[in-house]
Amino acid sequence: MKRTLAPTRPVAVRIAEEFDRFLGDPLDPTSRLSLRTIMRGDEAAELPDAVTEAMGEWGYAAHLVPRDLGGALGSPETLLTLCRTLSRRSMTVAVAFGSTFLGANPIWLWGDDEQKAFVADQILQGSFGGLALSESEHGSDLIATSTTALPTPGGHVLHGTKWPVGNASRGSFLVVLARTRAQPRQLGLFLVNKSRLDPATWYNEPSIPTLGLRGHDVSGITFRDCAVPASATVGDVSDGLGHTVKALQITKAFVAGLSLGAGDSALRFALDYSRERRLYGQNVYALPIIRHQLVEAYTDLLIAECVAAPVARSVSLAPERLPLWASVSKYIVPLLVDDVVRGTSEVLGARSYIRNGVYDGAFQKLQRDHAIAGIFEGTKQVNLHMIANQLPDVRRLALGGASTTGGTPALFEALFSRVADAPDWKPDGDDLRMTNRGLDEFSQGWPATADEIHRLATLADAPTGLRAIGAAVDRLTGEWQLLWSDIERVMDSGDLVSDPEGFHLAHRYCLLFAAAACANTWLVNRHALDGSFHRGEWLAACLQRTLVRLGALRYVSYGPEVERMMLNYGVAGNAAG
C-alpha cells in the first residue's frame, strides 16, 4: 500500500527512523542492536551490556522524561513509535525501559518537585526503575494489598513483599503501593530510593525464570520494618489506589507499541521466508493459502495500529477519555497481534519453533515474549471488566444522540491524523478520571461516520473501494444496534460485570471500536495520503475482517489486487522495520 506523505513527516516518524538507523541493520551481527546479539542475551537470560550502552548512547531513556525536567518526552505518539521500533528487535529491552516509565509515571503525575528531579536524574543517568504493585497472594487485586506503610513521626515504615515486579532488583528506585490504614481502600504510593534504605531492613527476592522476556529483571522486594521519609509519599497518601488506576491509563496507551513492534517483525519474518523458501517447485509465497494468511496477518496489524495511534494521541488530546479507551487498546491490540503471530507461525511452519536458523531463531523468541502482552498492565479479564462497567452509560448516551455534529467528530481530526503531530504531553494527574462518564466519540460518533462514508459513495469521483466499505459499514451499524440491545437485555436481569455475557459484550464493543478507528483513520487522512490509502481497499479488508470476528460475515476473499497492494506495502513500508 504505497502512500504519499505530507511534505513534513511527523516528528514521531522522523525520531523513530533516526533511532532505527542508529541501531543499524538487525541482520548485521556487528550492528549496535542485531538480532544475533539479542538472541545470545535471550539464551543466557541476560540483558547484554552492549544493548544498554547502545540505548544510552542514543539517549532512549530521555524520551521517558518530560522536557521540562531535562528529558525529551514530548508527543505521546513519539513514545509509542519508539517503543514499537525497539520492540521489533527485542520486546525484552523495550519492556525493561517500559517498566522504568511505569515507575516514573506516578511521579510525573503527582510527585513534588524534589521527587520529579530525583527520578528524572536517575533515568537520565541510565538507571532503571519500577512500579511495585503486585503481591504473590493477591495478584491484580490491589484492594487486598497486604504490604503496609505505617506512619511514624519521620515518615512511614514499610513491611511486606512485592512480587513480581519489573526491575525490582536492577532498578535504583521503585514506587511502592502499600496499605496506610486498616480500611480496604486506604492505600498510598511511596517513592523508594533504594540507595537510602537501611540495608538490614530490605532485600530483593530472586529473579523469576520466565517463558519469555528472558534477560528482563522480573523479581521482587521484601521490606522488614523499612523506614522511608515523609518526602517519599507520592500525592495524597490515602489515594494511592486512585493514583494507580489513573496512572495505568497512561501506560496502557503505550503498551500497544510492544505488540505492534512484535507484529511488525512477525509479518516481516514470514514475508521474507515465504519469498525465499521453495516447496513443490515454487516459492511458498506462490501458494494461495499462504498469501491469504499473510494478508490476514497484515490486516490484523493495520486494525491494531488504527486503534493504538489515536488512543496514544488521546494522552495529550483527550486524557479524560482514557478510562475507557486505554482499556480497549490494552485488550484488543495484544489480542489482534496474538493472531498475527499465530498466523505467521503457520507460514513459517517448523521454522517458527527452532531456536536458530531463520533470523537467528528470533521468531520463537518473539512468540514467547508476546505471550505476556495480554497479561501485564491488567489481564484481559481485568480490562474487559473495566470496559463492561462503563458500557451502560456509553449506551445510554449513544441512544440519546450524544454524538458530535459533522461528518467526523471535531476531536477525530486531531486524534486520527497521520500527518500532523500530536501536542506534547504535559503530565498532570488532575487531567485524569476514573471513568469516561459515558462519553465515547467512537461509538457515539458512529452514525456520523457511517453517514459521511455513504455521502462520499454518491460522489462522481468516489474511491474504488467505497462500495465494499459502504456494505461493511451497513453491517457494522447493525452490529452496533445489536450490541446496544443485548446490553439492555443483560442489564434487565443484573449487571454486565457479574454476568459472563457482559465480558463477551465488552469484547464485541472492542471490535466495533476498532472498526470505527479504521473508518475514521481513512476519513481524516484520505486527502493527505493518496494512492491505495485513498482508494480504501485496505479499509474494506479491515472492516470485513472485523465482521468475521463478530460472526456477521463468514469469510473474506481478498483477491489478487488486494494481496499485491497490501503485501508489497508490508515489505516496503511500515511493517518492514
TrEMBL record:
InterPro entries: Acyl-CoA_Oxase/DH_mid-dom, Acyl-CoA_Oxase/DH_mid-dom_sf, AcylCo_DH-like_C, AcylCo_DH/oxidase_C, AcylCoA_DH/ox_N, AcylCoA_DH/ox_N_sf, AcylCoA_DH/oxidase_NM_dom_sf. SUPFAM superfamilies: Acyl-CoA dehydrogenase C-terminal domain-like (SSF47203), Acyl-CoA dehydrogenase NM domain-like (SSF56645). GO terms for molecular function: acyl-CoA dehydrogenase activity; flavin adenine dinucleotide binding. Residues 41-126 form the Acyl-CoA dehydrogenase/oxidase N-terminal domain. Keywords: FAD, Flavoprotein, Oxidoreductase. Residues 131-226 form the Acyl-CoA oxidase/dehydrogenase middle domain. One of its GO terms (cellular component) is plasma membrane. Its cofactor is FAD. Pfam families: Acyl-CoA_dh_1, Acyl-CoA_dh_M, Acyl-CoA_dh_N. Residues 239-390 form the Acyl-CoA dehydrogenase/oxidase C-terminal domain. PANTHER family: ACYL-COA DEHYDROGENASE, ACYL-COA DEHYDROGENASE FADE4-RELATED. Belongs to the acyl-CoA dehydrogenase family. This is Acyl-CoA dehydrogenase family protein.
